[in-house]
Predict the 3D structure of the following.
Amino acid sequence: MRVLVIAECEKGLLVPATLNTITAAQQIGSEIDVLIAGHDCSVLVDSLSKVAGLAKVLCCEHPDFENHITENLAVLIQSISGNYSHVMAAATTFGKALIPYAGALCDVQAISDISEVVDADTFVRPIYAGNALATVKSSDSLKMITVRATSFELTITEGGNAKVENVQSTGANENLQFIEQMLSLSERPELTSAKVVISGGRGMKDGENFKMLESLADKMGGAVGASRAAVDAGFVPNDYQVGQTGKVVAPDLYIAVGISGAIQHLAGMKDSKVIVAINTDEDAPIFQVSDYGWNEDLFTAIPDLTNALES
Amino acid sequence: MKILVPVKRVIDANIRVRVKDDHSGVETANIKMAINPFCEIAVEEALRLKEKGSAEEIIIVSVGPAKCIETIRNGLAMGANRGIHVLCDNSPEPLALAKILKMIVERESVGLVLLGKQSIDDDNNQTGQMLAALLGWPLGSYISSIAVNDKGFEIVREIDSGLERLQLTAPAIMTADLRLNEPRYASLPNIMQAKKKPIEELTPIDLGIDITPRVQTIEVHEPPAREAGIMVSGASELVDKLKNEAKVI
């Protein structure tokens, strides 16, 4: 088994989900290479080569990969896929777009969002928004997989001594031009890797009220998320969304504020270690999955909680 | 320009699914089915492009059992022009589906394929990407806006860290994210009219596509249930529990 993990970087930093993906790869095979493609990614090559247990770090430093365009990277992956039994990436928007694309180029039926490795051909993955878990077995000789990062630990980032090898760019697709990225800038930890996540739902009433959650999050070193209802209502941008079609999080502590707990939302947070729900509706389904429920108006509860943490 | 919109028939998003006792899958007998919500968003966007004069014809295609006709009619009732039903026993895997769609795209010479980003049953999130790869057309995945221009389409994608703007040269593939639009309801006259719109029937064999699955589902289980915990009555009690019982702060 030789596994290739596709590293993801953003703003010059390694996306932590890459390290969870390496852990999943280690459960499949003993020989693991990582491919990093980008522009000015040499700093990341150094730190990746120190990750324990990697054989090689393949680096493709070229402007073609500056903006992580799916098409360009998929062709590069196809060009080296013959050396591998498995190609894996994290199930982020980057990996979710990339792996099926590369899979079709290689005539492989990709497997999305695995949460468990059973053996080299067999994996568990959530379906129906996590309301069922399917064990699936692939008959393709090459497996192409995206990995649910929250289901695997971060790998150890020290003590390794991987060989670094440069690979050539396979070119850029000329039918597509990158124009710009409009990134949400936040001093807070990233939603999917934060230890504490505080999410607001429709009960927040408007976007301005999310400031309460932000100040609570800052007190706890946490990130702020939202339900789809809050995103749909325009309270916060889509990258806040936790759920089946948004981000999947599994922090140590998840605080759901004014969120009723639709199946769609639970799919994105029910693997959190401890769940707290604050809601005025005592019948809200969120209370059925929460460790600590507080049947209170959030506009009273959040200031109270913020004060209680101060004292 | 012709727009092709593939749609999938899935268990209604508001139904709580139940795993079958023999663990072979989830219960679908006598369960309310509906058009996959993301496919519905794709249909709506195609209609809006047509209403703006950017498209002449919208073709709805669904691949699967006989009942998929209902899902196609759903798209026709919203305002699409005609349908294609590729009849087979089960929904094929995304790769086989993408191969079928590629054949239809080539037969119909469409300029844009608009798909939902994922279906809410298998949660695969693959078909649009695979179709783009097979056709060699540019891909706009997870889009929240489309503007038609001289060269093709300027789109905005929703990515984990925010938004991304790309220019795609036509023809192109796009997969719809939630915020692209809010689908309309089909009016009664349109529902009646849709019954008269043509639906062509094909099979994977007609198109020369092998739909034998590559991935076998061995078993399906319920996830471990989370037990409801306790109710607290105030902030200081909650902080105390989180500090001393759960030890998470």
